Amino acid sequence: MTIEPRLDIIGAALADPSRSRILCELMDGRAFTNKELACAAGVSPQTASAHLTQLEMAGLTSSLRSGRHVYHRIVRAEVAEALEGLARLSPTDHLSRTGQASADTLRARSCYNHIAGRLGVLMTGRLVAVDVLKIRGEAVFSGSRYQAFLDDIEVEGPPIAAGKPPAKLCLDWTERQHHISGPLATAILQRSLEQNWLRRRTGSRVLSITADGFNAFDRLFGLSKQAIDQADLA
Known about the structure:
The chain is of the alpha+beta class. 46% of the residues lie in helices and 18% in strands.
């Protein structure tokens, strides 16, 4: 008997627009209640519950009870990376029809626990250009300025197991270029939120860049507001 991966289980879990919307909401990286996800998907809480059961049975999400509420989230980073990969295969013509919302999505958004969109891609390019990171093929290594950069953003070095890279390449859904995921990327997002350089937008993966954020990204990455704002739709 041939042993094959059960892609049909994953396919069945994804083959519903409401479940897809729930997963896109969870790509924010945070945990949400059934009611919040029902609102995001435009379905009743009862329907959302059924969808979440199927997603959890397929191994895509997990649930955790806290007090009176049950929270749901993507089960691990590998699932988020796979969903981002599938997003690159999906049609994108709808982006040209939704105006400013699309421009904001293209500019900066969360991809589970790191920054995606044009901001993420530009950050990655600058980290390589100034030797914070080195890329060889698909592998990412720390460069000569890695520790200095961690000092600049005032975070302790992200915990990296022996032999593990500081970051990984993640092909961006909209930019079709790489941004980084992994420990360093997670640290950058967390620091950006803590310092109010970025703000999460309710009901969206969009990350709004504050005035302090534009100043910080110019200082730390050499990214001007004009360069970042080129995420606006042509």
